[in-house]
Amino acid sequence: MPRTMTSLNQTQPITLLVCALGGEGGGVLTDWVVRAAQRAGLPVQATSIPGVAQRTGATTYYLEVFPQVLPAGAPQPVLSLNPLAGRLDVLLSSELLETARQIANGLPSAQRTLVLTSAARTYTTSERMALGDGRVDSAALVRLVREHSRAHHVLDMGALAQQSGTVVSAVLLGALAASGVLPIAREHFEAAIGSEGASAAASRRGFVAAWDAITQQRHQAQFVQAVLTGPTPSTATPAAPWHQQNAAASALWQRAHSQFAPDVHDTLSLALPRLIEWQNAAYAGRYLDRLHTVAQAEQAADPGAQHRHSITREMARWLALWMAFDDVVRVADLKSRASRAERVRAEVKAKAGDVVKLYDHFKPGVPELAGLLPQALAQPLLRWDRARAGRGQAPWGMPLKVASHSTWGLLALRGMAALKWLRPQGQRFAAEQALIDRWLAAVVQGTQRGWGLGHELALCGRLIKGYGSTNERGKETLLHLIDHLALDTRRTLADVTTAVQAARIAALKDEAGRAFDAALVQHGAPPRPLRAQPIRLVRRAAGAPHGHPPKRTETSP
């Protein structure tokens, strides 16, 4: 029997808007809904509106389904070709930001609309181009959905589609069918998909996966409602798994709870296990030691916690990411994990018994290899590599092709991953810790001078990102900002805070750093020093015209 929504007017059409990105099968989904309604004997009409979503293009599809089977000879209902603001019964979307776009257009309403949306994001061009974190906050988008819907279901439809080996349109159909908003039986939806061919079988798997997920969410909502209206059961919040790994992990978590405000606990619950995994519990304890000095400085600067410990929260995030920097040991560990092999098999849709060969290509250079060596051995290697670059030669690198699926390849990766005990003796570790301490001292000193300055310096942690030359540029930028702006005691606190904020924002605008240098000059600080670059001289063949390929090249410093 079909499930209906009694809250809907049975004498008015049910209005449905589908939002899909290019290539996601929005048109196929619309055809399925139309065929399912026709099988149920319901009048239905569908139109499409092409649009652009700053990705591969998005199209919206508008459908109206009359919820009653009309007797033979009865006049057909008049169905609209486009949605009206606030008159939408269902918003079905494959991407969270597209859902927000339709909410911004005023189509859904908190009194009427059921929103079925994927939690998955396909980032826009502007989000991808930002040097900083340009992503729109997904949590804010979900809050927007919650505030502008009568009811809502949010799930990762992209993941369900990938697991089922199909496209997201089949998952969207399953979510719509399971919501019960249309008076159409499940068998009509499945019949609309068809049953012949591998494509139909995959679409059915996606349909069933979404049906089960939405049904589970509905049952959970009903259970929560029953709990809220009945006696409150006595429940205990289970401890996170990493807390119970050993006594050291448990002691770290207890220390974190006792030393830091609840506003910081969420970040610490992610940072501590990451640092334990990256090195050990002692290293995670060093992280808490560093963070505690910031918390004490912020407590003195903001004793009433009017800013909700924002400096400590920002430092907890960026300090953990910097302390767990990427190196050859970390890369080898991630490449050789069983979860990675399982993910690759899932991505290529390998079946049981299929042989999947996985090759990883590496090209470690002198900085990567010297990073694990002590200073006495690392410095000569680094000087030799810099001298090569000064002569116009390419930095030294050792191309490697590792068969990660083979026993020897996996042993090589696991052997490299097991070298994390060498990190504390290595040149890279010592250099990173020294830079971290300089930043930490600047944040503490800035906080002691004024809360706003300390907060701006804490936010500068986002300048440290990526790896290789990108990471090195970020550290150079941060140190230049600290030395020439943040520690300038000749200027007023307000001027220094404004200058640091402007420089931080400018540093994230372009990779070359032109905006950053301009901001430095504008606020009375020197631009970054120019880097020496080798001059490459090209000798042409005798008598060769301009534009002719060079015969050979020479370089000079």
Task: Describe the 3D structure.
The protein has 557 residues and is of the alpha/beta class. Helices cover 52% and strands 10% of the residues. It has 22 helices and ten strands. The strands form three sheets. It has a six-stranded mixed sheet, with helices on both faces. A two-stranded antiparallel sheet has the order 7-8. The N and C termini lie far apart (82 Å). Residues 1-7, 231-240 and 551-557 have low confidence and may be disordered.
- The tally of helices reads 22
CATH topology of the largest domain: Pyruvate-ferredoxin Oxidoreductase, domain 3
Radius of gyration: 30 Å
CATH class value of the largest domain: Alpha Beta
Tell me the structural class: alpha/beta
Core attributes:
single chain; 557 residues; alpha/beta; Pyruvate-ferredoxin Oxidoreductase, domain 3; 4 domains; two-stranded antiparallel sheet; 10 strands; 52% helix; disordered C terminus
Brief sketch in words of this structure:
Helices cover 52% and strands 10% of the residues. It has 557 residues and is α/β, with parallel strands linked by helices. It folds into four domains: 14-228, Pyruvate-ferredoxin oxidoreductase, PFOR, domain III (Pyruvate-ferredoxin Oxidoreductase, domain 3), CATH 3.40.920.10; 249-323, no CATH class; 328-427, no CATH class; 432-522, no CATH class.
Which helices and strands appear, and what pairs or packs with what?
Blueprint: E1 14-21, H1 26-39, E2 44-51, E3 58-65, E4 90-93, H2 96-104, E5 114-118, H3 125-129, H4 138-147, E6 151-155, H5 157-164, H6 168-179, H7 186-193, H8 197-229, H9 247-259, H10 262-278, H11 281-301, H12 310-323, H13 328-335, H14 338-347, E7 359-362, H15 366-370, H16 375-390, E8 400-403, H17 407-417, H18 427-449, H19 451-459, H20 468-486, H21 493-507, H22 514-522, E9 535-539, E10 552-556
